[in-house]
Design a protein that fits this description.
The protein has 11 helices and 13 strands. It is an alpha/beta fold. The chain folds into 2 domains: 122 residues, Aspartate Aminotransferase, domain 1 (Alpha-Beta Complex); 218 residues, Aspartate Aminotransferase, domain 2. The strands form 3 sheets. It has a 7-stranded mixed β-sheet, with helices on both faces. A 4-stranded antiparallel β-sheet has the order 9-10-13-12, with helices on one face.
């Protein structure tokens, strides 16, 4: 370990992102990216924003983007926070609400949560999913700390009904409850409708998935004015200008082009359902999914074997060599053509 590192850095286990190979062309079904390009309006807006004004700092309050988010979701301007991807919003949330405290989240979930916990000195307890990889809301009743739940959960793709989340909120009125809705647009119901009833609720969204903007890095949070002011305090203690002019312009254009958003989202959902049926015909166990990925296991062949064979054929998926899920694979839904190639490769492997 480097002697120049602080004790904090020495103790960190950083998040490991999905493989982004550069040596050859792969069919990438491993990082939950949208298989379709951003709206043409986004490209147009980005080109227009790439002008001489780049010499000037961007708007630190992101007023245009916050107004657009407000118009899209029917929330007040002061109930919205925007940041450099939902990962940054999550990091600021840990600092604002959980630093030096305790937090609860599922034992199988987004692996950035324990990383943030280590970074912000947050004690955490992992609540086991049940045998069907589902979150049991009752496990979070009267928790003695904050709560964060991804809905749908990743990598399991399982969705928790809004009424169950409301039960968690009711039983934890003195604790901040974060619902990470990165994949909510692919079939679930958002908890945004609960915000005006529960001051302890923070809902986090991203434009990376359903809006095809993983490369632009824009995320946002909805919450009470009090919670949003806490996020602003953390942001302005790190960097007042978290979103650049190009990202702001592209994000506004993406949110305004609702017809394109609805069209691509529908295509992904339809491809997902066709892929699930094809996989079941090949003797795969497929978890219920309301996300842009599926969680699968073959009844006879080991997951790591399939993962490696697919990689040899130029297809990347995600394999997690972790307890309970080391015989499962997470597969992002690509285009119809990509998923047909994926199914054909599995047929040959099997």
């Amino acid at each position: 370990m480097n002697d120049f590192f602080s004790e904090l850095v020495k103790g960190l286990e950083p998040y490991v992102p999905g493989e982004q190979p550069k040596n050859k062309k792969y069919i990438k079904l491993n990082t939950n990216e949208n298989p379709y390009p951003p709206s043409p309006e986004v490209i147009k807006a980005i080109r227009e924003a790439a002008n001489e004004d780049l010499r000037l700092y961007p708007d630190p309050e992101c007023e245009d983007l916050r107004k657009t988010v407000s118009d899209c979701y029917g929330m007040k301007h002061k109930q919205i926070f925007v940041g450099n991807g939902s990962d940054e919003v999550l990091a600021f949330s840990f600092g604002a609400f959980f630093a030096g405290k305790k937090i609860f989240f599922p034992d199988i979930t987004y692996s950035f949560y324990p990383v943030y916990a280590g970074l912000f000195n947050v004690a955490y307890e992992e609540i086991p999913l049940n045998k069907d990889f589902e979150i049991d809301a009752a496990d979070y009743f009267k928790a003695d700390g904050g709560i964060i739940i991804p809905n749908p959960n990743a990598p399991t793709s399982k969705y928790l009904d809004t009424n169950k989340i409301e039960e968690i909120l009711k039983s934890n009125s003195k604790n901040v409850v974060i619902i990470d809705e990165a994949y909510i647009d692919f079939g679930g119901n958002t908890c945004i409708s609960l915000l005006n009833q529960y001051a302890n609720l923070l809902v986090i969204h991203t434009l990376s998935k359903a809006r095809s903007l993983a490369g632009l890095r824009v995320g946002f949070a909805f919450g009470s004015e009090e919670l949003i002011s806490g996020l602003d305090r953390i942001k302005n203690s790190f960097n007042s200008y978290t979103l650049d002019r190009v990202a702001l312009a592209g994000a506004v254009a993406a949110l305004k082009d609702d017809s394109y958003f609805q069209e691509t989202k529908k295509k992904i959902i339809q491809t997902r359902e066709r892929t699930i049926q094809a996989l079941k015909a090949l003797n795969f166990i497929v978890m219920d999914s309301k996300s842009n990925f599926i969680f699968i296991s073959h009844k006879k062949l080991e997951a790591e074997f399939i993962f490696k064979k697919l990689r040899d054929r130029g297809i990347l998926i995600r394999f997690f060599n972790k307890p309970r899920i080391n015989n499962f694979m997470r597969v992002t839904i690509g285009t119809d053509r990509e998923m047909q190639v994926f199914i054909k490769a599995l047929e040959k492997i099997i």
